[in-house]
Amino acid sequence: MEAQKQKMKAYWRKNLQTLVILLLIWFMVSFGFGILLAEPLNEYNLGGFKLGFWFAQQGSIYTFVILIFVYVWRMNRLDREFDVNEE
Amino acid sequence: MDILTWTYLLVGLSFALYIGIAIWTRAGSTQEFYVAGGGVSPLANGMATAADWMSAASFISMAGIISFAGYDGSVYLMGWTGGYVLLALLLAPYLRKFGKFTVPDFVGDRYYSHTARIVAVICALFISFTYVAGQMRGVGIVFSRYLEVPIEWGVVIGMIIVFFYAVMGGMKGITYTQVAQYCVLIFAYMVPAIFISMQLTGNPIPQMGLGGDLADGTPLLEKLDGVLAELGFSEYTSGRKGLTDMLMITLALMVGTAGLPHVIVRFFTVPRVKDARLSAGYALVFIAILYTTAPAVAAFGIFNTIESTSEKEVDALPSWIDTWEKTGLISVNDKNGDGRVQYVADPVENELTIDRDIMVLASPEIAKLPNWVVGLVAAGAMAAALSTAAGLLLVISTSVSRDLVKTFKPEISEKKELRIARLAAAGAVILAGYFGVNPPGFVAQVVAFAFGLAAASFFPVIILGIFSTRINKEGAIAGMLSGLIFTLIYIIYFKFISPETNTEEFWWLGISPEGIGSVGMMINFLVCFGVSKVTPPPPKEVQEMIQEIRIPRGAGKASGH
């Protein structure tokens, strides 16, 4: 029982770690590159776009999509590893 | 065939499809009515969520807003997509594991309190009603513009269609019609965008066309920056809004998206926790297709409009201007009498006024596309408005039948509960229709603020309910109320009491009413923490329940027990 409890704690901790990393990226691409750093980034050019503008109107959205799929993949692995997955 | 015939044909066909699906997917139990029986595949749910989420505003107005706001319009693009990351990572899987039907269900159980549940129901009803009235109005406007019928008739026809599948089919009917509606709306959005991108930049992918070169070799965005600057506007790719305000609006929209009850409830319809995660991913893919195309449509639209009007002779303007002048969406007034159109930033000299909705609605005509494309855009706009309206109506009817009636009369039979749910849906359709025909002045103002209110009320208490075992009912109730009241007061003050001071110099810390939901959310979080700290922790069963929802295994289908 106690071992099971410890295991669940470890599972939750790993889950939180995953969340923190993914949310940091979420914050960086939108609030960071798209808004706070948009002006300096606009000095660079990416395929016809000013980079800051591209992040604000395109890049952040693509990154959001990727983040969710990385999360899905990572959590499915964690679930199996800790034997809490669904059949 | 002419435009009107095509429009009737395509809109009629799409309506026939929705009604067909409604008959085929009639709901037989409360479980089917509330959560489509809990057996929807992640892909179908992703598509339905996308249609549910993308409203008349996303389809018709967003590109136009960006056309005129340029870089500043990015707040909508990032805000309305970034919320799905929060939804997928922080809410959807856990709420699915919790396994009941509604958001107030969760709030009531997690905070072991009827009061918390009632506060949540009031928030849900308030958010959904302001939002749904806007959708019905949208249906009416599309009807009146394309089919040349009065707005009132448009709203009534829209009501009949929604009535059919929301009242009969409940969540089950709504889910499968939304899948069809997504297909209609995305096709309708992409076809003109692809054509126009080809015409302007030679690249069939609008997302790349936006960064592409015009026929003369200059990059589109660079040219646009130059043209706008020449006319006295600010550059397309740089911002005018304050930095704090940009951050706050984006955050409020993201968090608000994650807190909207009609979106959250979609994740109750999939069979497993892992399906909830995956279907949030699919939903964002389907949404991103439109949301990454919109900025391209926006830039193409404003560029084409300026090219075809600026300094052109008033008597020789393209025919679409004539067509749309009748609807009042665009008007030309040769003030200085030189026989040419001056489109400039200075309002005194400007001779061309353009409504933002033109950018999508008139795009097929501006680009001289065939008549059937115009009909297609009408059907797409209708699909966007109807699908969102239906999702909201379901939240309203569920709130009444389940969160209000069932809470106070738990002994009613399933059959009776289902009948009440249907009645409530019917009542909500009629009420929404009424507001669509007679929009109270505040509706248009408030729709955009539904997000701020969702951000300030639901989001913090749901997150804390999952990620903390210490937050108790006192904290949650105080948090929701303080966040909501603060946000409401700020919005009401600047929008209704003292609208003449609604400018940056008077805003608190430079935060506009659109962005104030973020501050409301922070207040909610702080109050929630503070009050919980000085009041007793939640009972043991509740703490155990929280541990339980953190683990995927053992998620049965959503149920009422």
TrEMBL record, chain A:
It holds the Pfam family DUF4212. It comes from the Bacteria. Residues 9-85 form the Sodium symporter small subunit domain. Keywords: Membrane, Transmembrane, Transmembrane helix. The chain crosses the membrane at residues 20-39, 51-73. This is Putative solute:sodium symporter small subunit.
UniProtKB/TrEMBL annotation, chain B:
Keywords: Membrane, Transmembrane, Transmembrane helix, Transport. One of its GO terms (cellular component) is plasma membrane. The keyword Transport applies. The chain crosses the membrane at residues 6-24, 77-95, 116-134, 146-167, 179-200, 246-268, 280-303, 372-400, 420-437, 443-468, 475-494, 506-531. GO terms for molecular function: transmembrane transporter activity. It comes from the Bacteria. It is a multi-pass membrane protein. It is found in: Membrane. Its main location: membrane. Belongs to the sodium:solute symporter (SSF) (TC 2.A.21) family. This is Cation/acetate symporter.
